[in-house]
Amino acid sequence: MPRILLVEDNEMNRDMLSRRLQKRGYQVLLARDGQEGMDTAVAQLPDLILMDMSLPVLTGWDATRRLKQASETARIPVVALTAHALSNDRDKAMAAGCDGYETKPVELPRLLDTIERLLASRGNS
Amino acid sequence: MSAASVAVDDSLSGLGHRLRTALTHIIGYSGLLLEHEEADAETVVQLQGVHDRAAIILSKIEHWLSPQLEGAPGQRISTLRDEIAEPLDVIISTVGALAQRLKGAELLDVLRIARACTELLTFVQHEGTMPGQIRPAPLPTIPESVKGRIISAPARLLVIDDNPANRDMLNRQLVHSGHKAVCVESGAEGLRLLQDERFDLVLLDVMMPGLSGVDVLQQIRNMPLLAGVPVIMISALDEVESAARCIELGAEDYLVKPFDPVLLNARLHSALERKRLQEEQRERTRQLERATQDLKRANEDLQAFASAASHDLQEPLRTVSTTLELFSLQWGTELSEEQREMFRLAVDGAGRMSQLISDLLAYSMAGGGEEELEPVACETALLEAVNNLRQSIRESGARITHAELPEVLAKPARLVQLFQNLVGNAIKYRGEARPDIHVGAWREGSEWILSVRDNGIGIDEKYQRRIFQPFGRLHGSNLPGTGLGLAICERIVRKAGGRLWVESKPGSGSTFFFTARCAVSHAEASA
Question: pLDDT tens digits, residue range B243-274?
């Protein structure tokens, strides 16, 4: 069962998204801020990370940048989740090293496609 | 870009972020609820409505708060407020309706949606506020369209609360909802009233001097007279634990002060509805029991009548038969051939009449209700029937075979009778060849289909219905029998909840089929 780390500071968002992912067979790990997200990623080495970009303690961008620089976690695909729909948000996320980008509210079918695609390509690398 | 417009952009985006977050929750949780397979059609339609309207609101927010858009921010925010007010109102009403219907984990999700709605509502209701200056939200006001949405039949309610202001407020709210309220200030007074007058529901304050709410509750629940009267506890926010304990002691529900009038109404409606449904159910059960008793008695009367009638009819018949036989023995040798023939006819007639009376009795007894069915092995019943038919089997040289036969739910004696009649018919209505009779069985779902196949003369299609009717004989008095055999079979099968039918072609024999319920439960059988 693929393990997904969800880094999201809003409680309801965490609850909603983790339940919908679990229903579809993913095991979901949770973290509430950028630092916890990073620590959990290093310790658990999930198969994919969903990273909210606006996080307390350590922002999503910074957390992603650091994860991509560390060798153990560099290959874990990161999908950015953000409520801001400003176009330079997307560029910022890609510049930090994100492999995918989704705006909130999340369109679940599209997110699932992105997750599947990234997990599949990871399996082949 | 000037510093001012950057600042505006930032605060606009902050506002957008807040609103979008709330919408994320509405869209997300309604989406989650829509994924439940057991949601009924109306719930699905309502959830879809919430989901779709939230998407509309989202698109308006994207549009009006987009940094690319021209126009003063204040103007844009104002327009946005106007445009999302209506869809938001519909979402809130729908959420109210869903909150009444759903329970448990689903209700929690609906409440989360409601919480997100209040965020949006705060935005809509704050006129003339620049983004970044939004004050902390007070308790949101509920739109008029939602108030009084729940309509219960007017009820007589008893309010027991020592605080006069509470009593007054409750009284006004209850009367506004169309109920009749009687308010008293002590438990003692309340209990007195409850003994003398009829009430549909009691609203009981937890914290009272003298006789406490818990004491009053226990006394009410000890009075069998008041068993059907629901009690709703009223408590303050920090007494929730004791109110919850009251539920274990028999209270139906509790409400926390200050009351939300919509919530009060919903809880009352729920408790009163439940009471009404319970009473309805009790009444219906009573009616059902009465009807069943009547039916049982009618059946018993019929059988008693048939039994008595049979006995009273057989007795004089026996006299006739016996007298004829004695006469024949005594003076038979002195009779002419013609006279002896007349005697034979008379004795024959009496014998047939006797047989008919027996069969009629058997027909009336063939009704065994569902309660009297038990597991019976078909093979055992068939063997007993075959044993009873041994004489005609011997005379006709009939050969009877059977497949592996199951256990079915039946009355043992009736099943024997059923097989006896069917196999007996197969022998009786034989053709030129030696009778070859086979009994088979196969399973379909929770029932067995049994078959009795013969190689006899067969039955023309146009008569295949008639043969099951009493006295629906096709062959007149050429063949022995009273014309009741198949009617008895039909009745036996029907009363056990099955069906009896035939497939046949003249000259090619007949196969009679009947259904019977499996003796093992479906679950056991498929384990």
Answer: 778 888 889 888 887 777 788 888 888 888 88
- Segment B105-141, tens digit of pLDDT: 788 888 888 888 888 887 887 654 444 444 444 445 5
Model confidence, pTM = 0.38
ipTM: 0.70
Among chain A residues, the shortest Cα distance to B67 is held by A86
| Two structure tokens written together for B460 | 């023309």
Do the Cβ atoms of A4 and A26 come closer than 8 Å?
yes
**Closest CA relative to residue B419, chosen from B458, B373, B380:** B380
- Per the listing, tokens 């009449």 go with B353
Rounded distance, CA B246 to CA B260, Å? 21
Closest residue of chain A to B23, computed from CA coordinates: A105
Tally of CA atoms within 13 A in the half-sphere of B124 that contains its CB: 21
Cβ(A108)–Cβ(A20) under 8 Å? Answer: yes
Task: Give me the half-sphere count of Cα atoms (radius 13 Å) on the Cβ side of residue B253.
Answer: 19
Task: For an interface test with B, give the residue of A104, A108, A112 to mutate (most B CBs within 10 A).
Answer: A104
Partners of B514 in beta bridges = B450, B500
CB A97 within 8 A of CB A76: no
Q: Tokens 């709703």 — which residue?
A: B232
